[in-house]
Amino acid sequence: MHEFLIQTSWWIPTYGLIGAVLTLPWSMGIIRRTGPRPAAYFNLLMTLLSLAHSVWVWQMTLGQPHQLLEFQWFRAVDLDLSFSLEISPVSVGAAVLITGLSLLAQLYALGYMEIDWGLARFFGLMGFFEGAMTGIVLSDSLFLSYALLEMLTLSTYLLVGFWYVQPLVVTAARDAFLTKRVGDLILLMGVVAVSTFTGSLNFSDLTQWAWAETTVLDPNVATLLGLALIAGPVGKCAQFPLHLWLDEAMEGPNPASILRNSVVVACGAYVLIKLQPVLSLSPVVLNVLLILGTMTAIGAALVAIAQIDIKRALSHSTNSYLGLVFIAVGMGQTELALILLFTHAITKALIFLSVGGVMNVTYTQDLTEMGGLASRMPFTTGAYIIGAMGVLAMPPLGGFWAMLQWIDGLWVVPLWLDIVVLLFNGLTAFSLMRVFGLVFMGEVKPKTRRAPEVGWAQAVPMVALVILTLLMPLMLYRWGLLPGWSAVNWRVAISLMLSTLVGAGLGAWIYANSGWEKPIRFPWKPVQVLLAEDFGILRIYQLSVVLVVSLLSKLAAWIDRYIVDGMVNLVGLFTLVSGEGLKYSGFGKSQLYVMTILLAMALIGVVLSFPFLSHLMSIAS
Amino acid sequence: MLSALIWIPLLGAVLVTLLPSAWGASYPRFLSLGLIGATVIVSILLGIQFDPSLSDFQFTEQLPWIEPLGLNYQLGVDGLAFPLLVMNAVLTLIALWSSDRFTVRPRLYYTLMLLLNASVSGAFLAQNVLLFFIFYEIELIPLYLLIAIWGGPRRGYAATKFLIYTAVSGVLILIAFLGLAWLTGSTTFDYAVLKQQTLPLTVQVALLGALLVGFGIKIPLVPFHTWLPDAHVEASTPISVLLAGVLLKLGTYGLFRFGLGMFPDAWVLLSPWLASWAVVSVLYGSFTAIAQKDMKKMVAYSSIGHMGFILLAGAAASPLSMLGAVMQMVSHGLISGLLFLLVGGVYAKTGSRDIDLLRGLLNPERGLPVLGSLMVLGAMASAGIPGMVGFMAEFLVFRGSFPVFPVQTLLCMIGTGLTAVYLLLLVNKVFFGRLSESVMNLPRVRWAERLPAISLALLVVTFGIQPIWLSRWTEVSTTTLVSHFPTIAQVTAAQTAANSDRSEERMP
Known about the structure:
- The complex is a heterodimer.
- Chain A has a two-stranded antiparallel sheet.
- Chain A contains 25 helices and 2 strands.
- Chain A is globular.
- In chain A, a hairpin with a 2-residue loop joins strand 1 and strand 2.
- By secondary structure, chain A is mainly alpha-helical.
- Chain A has 3 domains: 126 residues, no CATH class; 403 residues, no CATH class; 34 residues.
- The C terminus of chain B is likely disordered.
- Chain B contains 21 helices and 2 strands.
- A two-stranded antiparallel sheet of chain B has the order 1-2.
- Helix content of chain B is 73%, strand content 3%.
- Chain B has one domain.
- Chain B starts with a helix and ends with a helix.
- At the A-B interface, strand 1, helix 7, helix 8, helix 23 and helix 24 of A face helix 5, helix 6, helix 7, helix 12 and helix 14 of B.
């Protein structure tokens, strides 16, 4: 039985896909009588099965060595594309996390999107989403991971574009697809190259290849290869310069945003972690990871403070947190990166659950229109506080331990990275406190006057994640990821706590203070605008990539029309033939085309008889 | 067995012409559907008996015809032609099904469709270069008429342009074939015999050049491509499906069979130029597609880009890239067929193909939701999203070409990114957003009208999930095709080795 469950663990991603296919009769409008609910129930059931299966397999893998499952998929000439699945506590644990969060998000969607006509389509896409993500964490093949990352790109496009009638959604879906696609395409270049160099695309083989003494790669090639390989995760994790899409993607339905901000971004980072040995072939690539991570960690944390859309503010803080993960991978600390991803996934999902409840009852995402919800939605408020404390360095919750390991780990950290993490933590504390102050504290606004507490379908997931967040230190302890009390460097711990307190305190002083008039106006208007517009990244894109592509396309079309085709028409034949006199307006003028055909036939005849003539000539001579 | 694929539609064409005109339009329609259905069944029977592990031509047939000319009726099929042959049958069936039920002059229309199918099958099967040429030219006539009679407002211009371009292409190909026979002193046009030629390299290059331009018009490669967008825009939907799905493949098929197959040495010599030509074609086609406002024109330019990948793979001429090239032919046939069907569907219901005019067609009650969903699928397939056949074909092309031409391959990969740009623009503008006021109360789409697109979509997904079902027919044939000449990687390696030797010699 046990062996059977492990051997069939490829089913874990498949359940979600089956669920997605099962929704088709409802989403295509073949079954209308029942309404879209049955499709949702199918998907919930499938996700539950997937969760049960992965939990079971995970129980069995604890303390066991890695196991690889190979599936022959495609083999031609010298190319062997086998799908290899890695069954290890980490990979299956990640699958448990994804299916668990997916189950909660779907249950939440049942309440959140109760009246949406496209419910069946939504659940189908969620199933697809979940299947692709569990596939990525189980995959031990770069090819499979690449394919699934593209699937994620596609399903992100469709989920962001779910409410496709709204203009903002249309551009958001487009930008999400195209920016991620740029990353994916460069990753594909890397995949093609690495497959040429190594002959195998399995992560374990790639690691061996990268570590082998015999591997001699030109440093420039290694750098280019590494840069190509990180481009995919940069796009997926919304790191600078491909970070544009995540905040726009917040136009999509919130249940999908929960997954996007917790586990989808983590999937990109997971692939990055798997690729770390190959990346470490080039020090330049590792430095690039550090630089991109730092820029995003600090930049996005600043940008988050200036947002007035509640979801965008939080999504920028997701970018910023993923920046830390990038730095960790750049430093070679993959285990730390995994802890960061784990704590972030659960706590950020909790924050989005809580915020979703707020948006659902106020019908707005605008922070300036909210206020005073703490008294009306005490439970949601509590969930937000616990989630925010879990993300930040706030003992005894998870985020604190992750960041403590950062500064006080067994590895030597350059001082500037310590400062980065303290700065990041302080800024994030400030921005989370800002959201808290604007939404839950202060005066009651017109839109928040009648705000009932959320229903059971939204409450159950919140309770579950509150419990998980509170239990996180215990889980980390059980897995041996916590330092003993004696090993804790108190100076570091206190400086972390201080950064949280200073950030949150400042935030509370400004935003939870009834003495300040809201919305708050900063004395430096240009800075505020710069941050609110995400350092003008949209403008930069429009003036660079978009401009170049559109100019080139216009140029090509112009050349095509006036030079290439113009030359053809200049020959005159076509303009003559296509002139007024030769309009094939009806069937009456059929003699004209008959004539043309005759001409053509004559031509063919001449051409055909040519060899015969030549044959005769050769006989004659 | 192979003759059936030519003669069933050919005799069927005669039969359809002889139908009394008093009978309704549905008789020619169902007769030709039945006949093409029969050729599909014959293709399936062929598939059952076809042995993919053999590299030789199978089911060969030989009848003497005009002996003094060296023209014999020689047929045969290998792994290169077989997938294209089946696709011809299937796409013709789909094109017939999606033809207008109340078309004018139904008997002539269906006669020409059958004639087209027969001649294309003949070209794929011919083992005699002159026989190939005859079929290649015959195919031109029905297609010309199909565009010229059942086309859009500028059909005269488009059809004539098509006719003249293709006639020039035919002449160039014929010159190459005749020149080859003449210079080798061969008395026969048998492919197997001509293949053994040992001409001087310069002559080979000249002959190959004629073939390159000849087939380059058909594929089409930039700058010989301008007939294609016009032909596509003016042709009716089923004709566009056939044109993109099958007829362009005649160009690439001919290029591989006769260019690469008969002049391997010249091919190796020219291959760096061919790879660069492919890059120009891919990027030019893709960039031009971005600027198009007519959906059909956009898909037509995307064809130019996607056919360029096949030239890249051919230039690299590694076993893997050749396999990828054949898969790309099939994948482009299925995907562009699907896209043309969908664009045609939108045009039939809304009366417009203008990207700036149409909006919000995904609307579930008053729009075209199923066509829209299929369009998303088709766009993703064309953009090379995994899980659909386009991805695997392109991956094999890139993976096979990268060791030989790394820079050109990377540049071509940008083309797939651009594909995503223009098709996404199309989907976003036409199907997303609010349904525009100018397009209201669209007629309902019946399931029978959706059937062709749905079946193509199913094929696209099936072969995407199981590409081995597609590659198994071809692998051995394409490997043998390029096995007898040194891989270009080796040649360049040898050259660099020779160069470095020389420089070392100079050193002391």
